[in-house]
């Protein structure tokens, strides 16, 4: 079965946030303090998440990504992975994590059926990493990356949010990393998202900057197929590279016309677009599989044509964008 939205875009990908909590506090994602967290009883149970996965799979969803907040801080995540992996129709199961706890869980996750991981790593300098994450220890994240490689969670992708004046001096170091290891570094444009002053205005840089720096430094980028299948990244390699370099530019060259994603927030709301405020709770129909399938289709029928991030209100919309931070929506 093929699941399409009101624009005829095929949707086969569900991203599930299983918690809004996190063991880090990245500057672009969360405010420094005073973050209101969901109460435990308001978080969608694993049992109910599985009902959404099953209904989605019956409609044509084949790829699932578990995210958060930090997914590895929620107890029982390995069992959830095992149950999703065993769901008929699900052929790809991935996780986005900051990697801090991956050293502990990579082996169990692999055995449970997790196929691949994206690990956020915005700096390879300990002090800077600690500043960006407001508390993270680089060596823990690096151990998580090694554990992912050792346990063949393949491909291992590193998410790097490019920030002017913060980590734009490390572009060459990240390119070099793809020469030495089978790691896939994906530079992501800084998105103005959330209810805190996320620093977008001061630190946004379009990803054309990566190409400029690479060429100047004598590292021309050669296009290659995307590791691990389709996605929004443009993929490249440098000469002698074992890994690849991905460029994801949601702002300067958005990819809404090929968007295939539906999101489920930690409290159980379906969101067809990361940007807009529209959300629909699954709870009222969670025990009725047919009604749940109808709801998923309804949400997609009204999916907006595109987001308006970075527009500064000049795109003519009457509706404001979402004020949820990525940690609450699930990045
Ligand atoms: N905690 C996990 C992690 O950090 O990988 C998963 C959740 S996090 C919200 C998912 C992804 O969203 C991360 O790769 C993070 O870098 C990205 N992200 C969060 N806020 C962002 C922003 N304002 N602009 C661009 N990417 C952002
Ligand atoms: Fe936590 Fe991930 Fe947000 Fe960083 S980006 S604060 S690790 S949820």
In percent terms, what proportion of residues is strand?
Answer: 15-25%
Count, helices: 10
Strand order of the largest sheet: 7-8-9-6-5-4-3-2-1-10-11-12
Quote the CATH topology: TIM Barrel
Distance between the termini: 27 Å
Major sheet characteristics:
12 strands, mixed
What would the average pLDDT be, to the nearest integer?
Answer: 90
Give the helix proportion (percent range): 25-40%
Our Rg estimate from Cα atoms comes to 19 Å
Shape: globular
Structure notes:
- The chain has 331 residues and is α/β, with parallel strands linked by helices.
- It has 10 helices and 12 strands.
- It has helices at residues 46-59, 77-85, 102-112, 126-133, 138-150, 171-180, 200-203, 208-216, 289-301, 326-329; strands spanning 13-17, 63-67, 92-97, 116-120, 156-162, 183-189, 222-223, 234-237, 244-248, 261-264, 269-271, 280-281.
- Strands 7-8-9-6-5-4-3-2-1-10-11-12 form a 12-stranded mixed beta sheet.
- α1 links the parallel β1 and β2 (63-67).
- The two termini are 27 Å apart.
- Bound molecules: S-adenosylmethionine and iron/sulfur cluster.
Concise structural overview:
This protein has 10 helices and 12 strands.
Task: Output the keywords.
331 residues, alpha/beta, TIM Barrel, 12-stranded mixed sheet, 17% strand, binds S-adenosylmethionine, binds iron/sulfur cluster
